[in-house]
Specification:
Number of helices: 9
Radius of gyration: 21 Å
Largest sheet: none
Structural class: mainly alpha
Order of helices and strands: HHHHHHHHH
Number of strands: 0
Oligomer: single chain
Length: 175
Amino acid sequence: MSKRDLKKYLTELHKKQLEEQILELYEKFSAVKTYYDFVFNPKEETLLKECKIKISNEYFPQKNSGKARRPKMRRSVAQKYIKHFILLGVDPFVVGDVMLYSIEIAQTFSAEKTVKQELFYKSMFNSFEQAVKFIIANGMVNEFKTRIVSIADETKQQDWFNKEEFSVIMERFEE
């Protein structure tokens, strides 16, 4: 069904019928419930806090019943939150914050423990590039410039093999 067909169908319904359909969607589909829960009670601070805890646990896991867990270092956890936040329509500033935070926490981890997987560095670069593009597209350069520069500098400090790629992004960023 096209959007135009849907609009036509919806205009033919009475208010009561529309209410019933929306309630049915709310009950049947968790994505609809999540959307309406956010729209009517946008606890962005709570979502941000929860998100940052989950991302941190990927690199610095909490001990479970006295046993130390190994870090999983999954970029996908942050990516799921970022995608979810964009879908919900969370403030772009919060999304930009999460994008940079996920890289910063990974850098904190790599400063403490040597990461041998080349894929880790490549994925951090992809995250950095995505974050810079998002921040520029949303006109938030001034708010995040210090953190972006700090991330690029940290790649040099830690001597990441792809530090030059970060520098290239910084050159484009500063133009």
